[in-house]
UniProtKB/TrEMBL annotation:
It catalyses: 1,6-anhydro-N-acetyl-beta-muramate + ATP + H2O = N-acetyl-D-muramate 6-phosphate + ADP + H(+). Gene3D superfamilies: 3.30.420.40. The gene is anmK. Belongs to the anhydro-N-acetylmuramic acid kinase family. Catalyzes the specific phosphorylation of 1,6-anhydro-N-acetylmuramic acid (anhMurNAc) with the simultaneous cleavage of the 1,6-anhydro ring, generating MurNAc-6-P. Is required for the utilization of anhMurNAc either imported from the medium or derived from its own cell wall murein, and thus plays a role in cell wall recycling. This is Anhydro-N-acetylmuramic acid kinase. The lineage of its organism: Bacteria, Pseudomonadati, Pseudomonadota, Alphaproteobacteria, Hyphomicrobiales.
């Protein structure tokens, strides 16, 4: 193991709920220690701005263009990440000697089929802000981590499997978890990493997760979340709707494959019949859809997983976890239950990927994004 360094990951995901900040110590191949993690929620005005940015990004063909509200959204995203990092280092000043920061930015458009992915967030401006928060020479900043993969013909997502594999090393032996393992991240979009010993990991997005549920709850109740899955638990799943929604051609495609946050909005609007459902039945049906989408990937995997490890915001939804157990017929445990941090996992992953980028190690692989060869990635702003 090379000498581990402190690295911070900054992640703002497809759920649009805030900025996750997490610290780990790593050499980009192994994880030596976990540090603290925090989430800094977006204000409602910020979230509304980002929702408008998602709409205005739809016609983009130039990933560097920032027309209309996108320029304002990029400024706000950068400021909120700088503020989140400042708050984190004020709470944990002993970590101001961090060596690397990985900055994901906010994805507003993901169209790998035309070799386009757009993450807003001003790397140079954030690097300038970081220098004011850390002792000289300061950390290296690594950002724009998806672009190289997409430009080479990969899906550009998910990027976390390299981190999942590092975490899972020895996990089956240490905790007596039966393998293969399926690590499921339940963010706005759900993605999986399949891990089986020394075999290459297999990864892909599986379908919608919190994004559709949150948007539905916001439209119906004014609150963009089904807290603890309470509404879904009180509702009835329309299995006819689930079967109809699963006819989308995405589900018959083998991995690797990926999604934009809004890829299923129109499909569900046309085929979901949600307008005729109560809040409870709509929440139950959308929650069941998330579980069914995960189930749809199982026939495409080399072996059926024995254990599913759930992470991300959806791992706090007991109704969703119960539906996963019922529909998949596998043991479902949370990331926290195996000693990981379910809420900080993606931010930790981008800290890990930043160190990999600085060391010249690949971030993505043919079996995880469909890229033709193991792919380096990230734009680096060196320390100092």
């Amino acid at each position: 193991m090379s000498r581990p360094v402190k690295a911070i990951g900054l992640m703002s995901g497809t759920s649009l709920d805030g900025v996750d900040v997490a610290l780990i110590e790593t050499d980009g191949e192994n994880v030596a220690a976990f540090g603290p993690g925090r989430t800094y929620a977006y204000a409602e005005a910020d979230r509304a701005l980002l929702m408008r940015a998602l709409e205005e990004a739809k016609p983009l063909t130039d990933r560097s263009a920032r027309p209309g509200v996108l320029a304002e959204a990029e400024r706000v995203v950068t400021e909120r990440h700088a503020q989140a990092l400042a708050a984190f280092l004020a709470e944990f000043p002993e970590h101001r000697d961090v060596a690397a920061v990985g900055f994901h930015g906010q994805t507003v458009l993901h169209r790998p089929e035309i070799r386009l992915t757009v993450q807003i967030g001003d790397g140079p401006a954030l690097a300038w802000a970081i220098r004011a928060l850390t002792p000289a020479p300061g950390p290296a900043l690594v950002y724009d981590l998806r672009a190289a993969d997409v430009a080479a013909g990969g899906q550009g997502a998910p990027l976390v499997p390299a981190y999942h594999r590092a975490l899972a090393q020895g996990l089956v032996k240490e905790l007596a978890l039966p393998g293969p393992l399926l690590v499921l991240n339940l963010g706005g979009v759900a993605n999986i990493t399949w891990l089986d010993g020394e075999a290459d990991p297999i990864a892909c997005d599986t379908g919608p997760a919190n994004a559709l549920i949150d948007d539905f709850m916001k439209a119906r109740t004014g609150v963009p979340v089904d807290r603890d899955g309470a509404a879904a638990a009180a509702g009835r799943v329309d299995e006819t709707v689930i079967a109809r929604l699963l006819t989308h051609p995405f589900f018959s495609r083998k991995p690797p494959k990926s999604l934009d946050r809004n890829d299923f909005r129109e499909w569900v609007a046309v085929h979901g019949g949600l307008d005729a459902m109560s809040v409870e039945d709509g929440a139950a049906t959308l929650t069941a859809l998330t579980a069914a989408c995960v189930g749809a990937i199982l026939p495409h995997l080399p072996k059926r997983p024995a254990t599913l490890i759930a992470a991300g915001g959806g791992a706090h939804n007991p109704t969703l976890l119960a539906m996963l157990r019922e529909r998949l017929g596998v043991e479902v445990v949370t990331a926290d239950a195996v000693g990981w941090s379910g809420d900080a996992l993606e931010a930790q992953a981008f800290a890990f990927l930043a160190v990999r980028s600085l060391r010249g190690l690949p971030l993505s692989f043919p079996t995880t994004t469909g890229v033709p060869r193991p792919m380096l990635g990230g734009v680096v702003i060196a320390a100092g």
